[in-house]
UniProtKB/TrEMBL annotation:
InterPro entries: AB_hydrolase_1, AB_hydrolase_fold, AB_hydrolase_sf. It comes from the Bacteria. Residues 29-237 form the AB hydrolase-1 domain. Gene3D superfamilies: alpha/beta hydrolase (3.40.50.1820). It comes from Deinococcus xinjiangensis. Pfam families: Abhydrolase_6. This is Uncharacterized protein Rv2715. SUPFAM superfamilies: alpha/beta-Hydrolases. PANTHER family: HYDROLASE, PUTATIVE (AFU_ORTHOLOGUE AFUA_2G14860)-RELATED (PTHR43798:SF33), MONOACYLGLYCEROL LIPASE (PTHR43798).
Length: 247
């Protein structure tokens, strides 16, 4: 596992600060964590991806190294990341988003499609509007569907973010729907899901992939809602295979 150093770089835009780190060389890969998460959730993936790519790991506003700020909506996160990509002149980028991060990534593609060549949606939200009650019932089981040793990281990042930030992000996640964007997307897309995901079920992943022209769908056996942590070798292999495919 790669020793993960705290992000050393900051991007300031309209009163918000985005913290990020980078590693490797090549076409850029942007990693976006999910609700209650941080860039630390990608520790088992960064080194494999950085062999041929420059990997950027961001901490969304209100989380990880970007905490001590009020979290913002899905759309505002996408707008901030779009401004950041433009400032760094990132092109031919692969955007990989987990859960809320996948939701943000979908909005990001709609804002700067010319800068994004590949999209990987990992247990992504975006189609949960109207599923609030069912989601709440599944929360108690979500933490035990994957790697138990990861629970302390989840709890630490959640505590650091704080309930107000989690509430704001969760409310935005559950009221924003990306259904209308999906058929319009032109970017090559891979949808990855954990077969044991009790929080955002694989049926929603299949629905998500089915709405995006040409999207590939892959399930990882034995993985829960955080497949890149639960089964990192399988996850890394799927992503790298996808990136190496000829269009």
């Amino acid at each position: 596992m790669l020793p993960f150093v705290p992000p050393a770089e900051s991007f300031h835009h309209q009163g918000k600060t985005l913290r990020y780190t980078r590693l490797g060389r090549g076409d850029p890969i942007l990693l976006i964590h999910g609700l209650s998460g941080s860039g630390q959730w990608w520790r088992s993936n960064i080194l494999a991806l950085a062999q041929k790519h420059e990997v950027f790991v961001v901490d969304l506003v209100g989380y990880g190294q970007s905490r001590r700020q009020k979290s913002v909506s899905v759309t505002e996160n996408a707008e901030l990341l779009a401004a950041w990509m433009e400032a760094l002149e990132l092109r031919q980028a692969t955007v990989i988003g987990h859960s809320l991060g996948g939701h943000v990534a979908t909005r990001l593609v709609s804002l700067v499609p010319e800068r994004i060549s590949h999209l990987v949606l990992v247990s992504a939200t975006g189609l949960l509007k109207g599923h609030i009650a069912r989601l709440a019932l599944k929360l108690p089981r979500a933490g035990v569907s994957g790697r138990i040793s990861f629970l302390p990281r989840i709890m630490l990042d959640s505590a650091r973010a704080g309930l107000p930030n989690l509430w704001r992000s969760g409310r935005s996640l559950l009221t924003d729907d990306v259904s209308e964007l999906l058929p319009l997307m032109q970017v090559r897309t891979l949808v990855v899901w954990g077969a044991r995901d009790n929080l955002v079920p694989p049926t929603l992943g299949q629905q998500l992939a089915g709405a995006i022209v040409g999207a590939q769908y892959r399930e990882i056996r034995g993985a829960g809602h955080v497949p890149m942590v639960d089964k990192p070798e399988e996850f890394n292999a799927l992503v790298l295979e996808f990136l190496e495919q000829v269009n």
